[in-house]
Amino acid sequence: MIRMEGVNKYFDDFQALTDINLEVPTGQVVVVLGPSGSGKSTLCRTINRLETVESGAIAIDGVPLPEEGKALARLRADVGMVFQQFNLFPHMTIKDNVTLGPMKVRKLKKADAEKRAMALLDRVGIANQSHKYPAQLSGGQQQRVAIARALAMSPKVMLFDEPTSALDPEMVNEVLEVMADLAREGMTMLVVSHEMGFARKVADRVLFMADGAIVEDASPEDFFTSPTSSRAKDFLGKILAH
Ligand SMILES: Nc1ncnc2c1ncn2[C@@H]1O[C@H](COP(=O)(O)OP(=O)(O)OP(=O)(O)O)[C@@H](O)[C@H]1O
Ligand SMILES: [Mg+2]
């Protein structure tokens, strides 16, 4: 579903991604770990072309990423992304946040988009908040709206970049549970997260990045019990220590 071949990404002279080769089959859940600055967000952002790459090839469901225009808008709809900061439109109600994309990009009629939005809001447990504005919701609720909004586009792939790290601790689980449900339903997911419980329970595969490269690519079991690189051992030592 996601294929990256020989991808290199620079910010001026700085190489942020180095020779990334990655194939994610349909329905697989990949958790991406790694220290700050290792390129995890950049990896996500290249997959829906929020960042361009200097060399290499990226394809979603067999189709190379389009450069611009309508095809790019469609790609963005196919590849849903949920960020650390929820990025909801503050001046629009929850329902309107969820219906906007499907109406504009997928050309759904308003009534159909609203029906779908309410079903998705129900699925993430906040149908009763649909008339409110983002600022009137808790962080956990806002993030669940962000997930519903991405799902409203019927994406083929969902990318999550630290979706719970801006949340108060008591709200983390409600978001992780929505993500785990999505994984169970067979969504192809790439998740940057340091939630180790989620990685162990939900991930099919763990990628560990350091200095812009994928250093380890293993099952959660193998990664957590016997990491091979010193970078990963060091990382796990730090994060499991607290
Ligand atoms: N727009 C940009 N311009 C210049 N350098 C950038 C830009 N975005 C990212 N970088 C650099 O690329 C490297 C990788 O950044 P990235 O945000 O992908 O790391 P990350 O693994 O997501 O880190 P974190 O865990 O802190 O979110 C960092 O050194 C960062 O400073
Ligand atoms: Mg990041």
UniProtKB/TrEMBL annotation:
Domain of life: Bacteria
Domain annotation ABC transporter: ranges: 2-236
Molecular function terms from GO: ATP binding; ATP hydrolysis activity; ATPase-coupled polar amino acid-transporter activity
Localisation per UniProt entry: Cell membrane
Family matches, as InterPro entries: AAA+_ATPase, ABC_ATPase_HisP-typ, ABC_transporter-like_ATP-bd, ABC_transporter-like_CS, MetN_ABC_transporter-like, P-loop_NTPase
Enzyme Commission identifier(s): 7.4.2.1
Alphabetized SUPFAM superfamilies for the sequence: P-loop containing nucleoside triphosphate hydrolases (SSF52540)
Main location: membrane
Keyword ATP-binding in record: yes
Catalytic activity, as annotated: a polar amino acid(out) + ATP + H2O = a polar amino acid(in) + ADP + phosphate + H(+)
Entry keyword set: Amino-acid transport, ATP-binding, Cell membrane, Membrane, Nucleotide-binding, Translocase, Transport
Pfam families listed in its UniProt record: ABC_tran (PF00005)
GO CC field: plasma membrane
Membrane-topology descriptor: Peripheral membrane protein
PANTHER family, A to Z: AMINO ACID IMPORT ATP-BINDING PROTEIN, GLUTAMATE_ASPARTATE IMPORT ATP-BINDING PROTEIN GLTL
The family this protein is said to belong to: Belongs to the ABC transporter superfamily.
Name of the featured protein: ABC-type polar-amino-acid transporter
Organism: Corynebacterium maris DSM 45190
